[in-house]
## 1
Amino acid sequence: MTPSALPGQPHLAYRDHELCLEQVRLADLALTHGTPLFVYSKAAMLAALAAYQRGFQGRKALICYAMKANSNLAVLQLFAQAGCGFDIVSGGELQRVLAAGGDVKKVIFSGVGKTRAEMRQALAAGIACFNVESEAELEVLNQVALDLGVRAPVSIRVNPNVDPQTHPYISTGLKGSKFGVAHERTVATYQRAAALQGLHVVGIDCHIGSQITQELPYLDAVDRMLDLVQDIEAAGIPLQHLDFGGGLGIDYNGDTPPAADALWRLLLAKLDARGFGQRQLMIEPGRSLVGNAGVCLTQVLYLKPGETKNFCIVDAAMNDLPRPAMYQAFHQIVPLAQKPAPEPATSWEVVGPVCESGDWIGHDRALALQPGDLLAVLSAGAYCMSMASNYNTRGRAAEVLVDQGRCCVIRERESAQDCFALEHLPDPA
Ligand SMILES: *Cc1c(COP(=O)(O)O)cnc(C)c1O
């Protein structure tokens, strides 16, 4: 029988009624490695990257994977080998890049709260650029660089004040956001940066939000950025690179974000029209490179039909899949085995075992279920495992990378001992 692909999920398909990622039967992985289990497709990640690479063909562009989306070392190695740089937000992430064999000269460092220790670590390693988010940070970075006898390459993250029309918690480029320097303060901040001996101004950047599914916020942000570039350069401060951040959305539930290559054709046309098309360009995509490359496998523990709601209790929870609890996010949930005869589907609240009413994975899902059934939570490659916690002393799930027929455990399941390994009982008095 011909495999039937899932909408928006080209690397997932039912073959003989069994859900497969690339060629691998997911039920086999669940039986071998247990659940909850994250499984990622290498081909899906490389296909997502290829869309950006096509979009930038013939341009000077560096794709810096925003690794907070999924920072497993094997994922980082894959993107490093494909030529990517990395957008980091902590010293810990820098250590991951180094451990995965990434090129430190392609690392840019974002985030509103870099510590002095993190600045020293990144300067010693020789990263490409600090994306500075405030005037106060500029002064501290200057001091740290002078103390080390080096000059810190800086770009200033500007807040273009455009509404990305996404969830408020993942909008970052509006007035009143904690991120970036206000549009009106930008030229003055650049003048200050240029005057500081420990800094070397190299670029400008913005990042307006996440899970953006429309072109317009990007087009507006590019226009507002280019206005600023003209003002900054008119003040005698040349900029080597322009960084447009990340934020492109993925299809979680019939969402229709532009394809990366189509979006960049539009944005590059604007850059060309305004004479900036041949500049060094950078972008910082996270979710759009990994989100739809991963699934989380989970098993039905109990069915608890009720008067007003039917609960399906599964072995994955908010500590594994935090997005529904944090952002009311939607993830598709599908069975690993298509039932041969269509059973009547009931509406279920799919919830985890954690002791919180906020611990839900999906509301009102039409599924035909039995205890013991295996399910896949889709679009789980980004901001799931990287946000996972040990709440309720639940060890974090294992992760498997699928590469054509080969499967590799890229992170082992945590044990309870792993969860409390760093704790100590006080000595008796
Ligand atoms: C999180 C983040 C990104 C990546 O965002 P996505 O929506 O995952 O593409 C890029 N740049 C910065 C500064 C970020 O904080």
## 2
Amino acid sequence: MTKDLKGKRPETVLTHAGRDPQANFGAVNTPVYRASTILSASYADRKRAKGEREPRYGRRGTPTTFTLEDVLAEIEGADAAVLCPSGLSAITTALMAFLRQGDHLLMADCVYGPARNFASKLINRYGVETTFFDPAIGAGIGALIRDNTKVVYLEAPGSQTFEMQDIPAIAAAAHARNCIVMTDNTWATGLFFKPFEHGCDVSVHAATKYIVGHSDAMLGAVTCTHATYGPIREMWGLLGVAAAPDDVYLGTRGVRTMQVRLEQHQKNATEVATWLLGRPEVAQVLYPALPSDPGHAIWKRDFTGASGLFGVVLQPATEAQLEAFFDNLELFGMGSSWGGYESLAIPADPSDNRTATKWAPAGPLIRLHIGLENPLDLIADLEKGFKAMHRMA
Ligand SMILES: *Cc1c(COP(=O)(O)O)cnc(C)c1O
């Protein structure tokens, strides 16, 4: 029997959700069931209608999968979850579940680039039209909603540029016209933002980031309400986007410690971001947890924490100076993805991914992921990068 976690606090939920040790010889963790074929006990059993949680074929899931689905649904306050092999497949599965020929999609201008590509390069081929909108639109979204608008898709804060969105105001306007509201909740996770308490109907995750948390497995998740679960589970089945059991196991293993990791990411990121604010090389720090950030008021109202990823707009610098900065960092690795235990720094340029707004910063943008190292060492590392930059001046 899994435990009744109603009213329990997030740390407790993360520790106990989805586990049933006595169903697994007392083992604390649900094991990795590597299964394609699942044998029926008898002819009658083979013919019997199976419940959704009864394993019948590897792609349809096993207890390994159901465990993580339950944990993710519990921590987000969702009614159910579906796992996919990547964050991007979770996004595309959720969108396809609700969009058909002739429909209209509204998408925030700041969403993850490949989500945008799916809208502008793939579903447009099947007769779905997309309008991108300024993430600061708030209740003004009402003016963009058409009779055929089906989905309003958000991501707060936005990819690379970290704009907050007034999700409750957008959701109220969208629901008044019967639209489904989806948000990409990868940055905050279900621990720092509760999408369903703020008007969302679907939440998507790159579990690759904080849920897996160790820069190894790729994984995605969609969490849903009772009303949105049916179409999403159906689309998931039609597409065959099942996550692999070993990756799911790593996701479950990672998520058990997500609260302590996120608290530390937040503490370290705040320390590094605050230090950066005082640096002469820095024009702007894009981190909603800072009082100087334009999204701070909304973040404070709706979110309970901030994770370790933020943007830094530098003062104007040459390519040679940027090269010197990045190549002289020792602790910060240069790589895509984020959400692992280690720090990352990459150059970023979202200008090609904006159509409703214009990205015109004072200088080059860098994206930092602040890991679990001691923040004083990270600050010293960045200082070393800045020194190298000045030598190129
Ligand atoms: C990385 C990322 C994704 C995509 O996840 P993958 O697992 O890489 O497919 C989606 N949304 C956001 C905000 C991301 O950062």
